[in-house]
Amino acid sequence: MTERPPTDHRHSDMSPAAPQSVPAQSVGEPGGSPMIGILLKVASVSVFVTMSTLIKASGEGVPAGQIVFFRSAFAIVPILVFLALRGQLETAWRTASPLSHVRRGLVGVSAMGLGFYGIMRLPLPDAIAIGYAMPLLTVVFAALFLGEKVRIFRWSAVAVGLGGVLVISWPRLSLFGEGFGSGEAQGAIAVLCSAALGATAMILVRKLVLTEKTPTIVLYFSLTATVLSLASLPFGWIVPDWSTLGLMALAGFCGGLGQILLTQSYRHAEVSTIAPFEYTSIVLGILIGYFIFGDVPTWSMLIGTTIVIGAGLFVILREHRLGLERKAQRKLVTPQG
């Protein structure tokens, strides 16, 4: 038995780089254009990186829970407009498993808050690169909790990729200097925890797609995240100035728009075609980090990121080849009369 095709598991609601999941039923509609899918994917990555930039620019004084609220609340606006234009707004409210959405929301909100906390304390490229641990951990969790078949090639790629994440993170977690008490160490730990929770949320999403439609999953997450993030209000929200308020509101809008672009990209091309373009986020992160925040990439970040991307591309290319072989085998099967 061959391994299951890879799915782009990055989540805008959780990981620093932000792309959200797209349930399998929305992938690769007949008649789609791969080039349009690629362009939409790159656009979604750009919008999500912009969202992370706006969050980082809003300042460290804004509590993570408050950022989650604005990110979720303002994301609802473009999502509702999009669903209304597609005539899916009425059906999107129908759910067979409301408690499952709440469970996914609790995990997702926690992951998002930790991810935003990490963005505030790490250089933007480092936060994005460490966030690449999430799809790797999703493979591990899917094997452990869903019983998915993961063979030696993918296990090897996951091990190498996690090694790359360790290369990126280790200088921040070093016991020398300030060690674990430094802001960057806390940021790295937060992003790693965010990745683990994000992978857990993806397992919940994989169960949700068995009974729920994509619009329902997207809409209910934004709603539950908005409500659940209000629980952080007693822990010290600030009264933001107009500039900070505008940045957080725009970040939320970008989150919703990015989700729409990402979902549409999978309607035009297969996962293996557009998944590699996820890694354009690190290029954008390095450029934005340098020119806006003055962050100079470290050798450990560049080397670790290269290892992680190499491992990811290995899995994508291998699964693409296996997919072509499966298609060829299906064509050779003679229909039974």
Summarize the structure in words:
By secondary structure, the chain is mainly α. The chain has one domain. The protein has 13 helices and no strands. It has helices at residues 34-57, 64-85, 89-92, 98-121, 124-131, 133-145, 152-173, 183-208, 214-229, 242-265, 271-274, 280-293, 299-332. Residues 1-27 have low confidence and may be disordered.
Our measurement of the CA-to-CA distance between the termini, rounded to an integer number of angstroms, reads 27 Å
- Based on CA atoms alone, the radius of gyration comes out at 19 Å
| Mean pLDDT value | 85
Q: Report the helical percentage.
A: 55-70%
So how many helices? 13
Helices and strands, in N-to-C order? HHHHHHHHHHHHH
List how many beta strands DSSP finds: 0
User: How many domains, in number, for the residues?
Assistant: 1
Shape call: globular
Q: How would a crystallographer describe the biggest sheet? A: none
| Class from helix and strand fractions | mainly alpha
Content of β-strand: under 5%
Give start-end ranges of low-pLDDT stretches: 1-27
Summary keywords:
337 residues; disordered N terminus; single chain; 13 helices; mainly alpha
SSE arrangement:
Layout: H1 34-57, H2 64-85, H3 89-92, H4 98-121, H5 124-131, H6 133-145, H7 152-173, H8 183-208, H9 214-229, H10 242-265, H11 271-274, H12 280-293, H13 299-332
Tell me briefly what this model is:
By secondary structure, the chain is mostly helical.
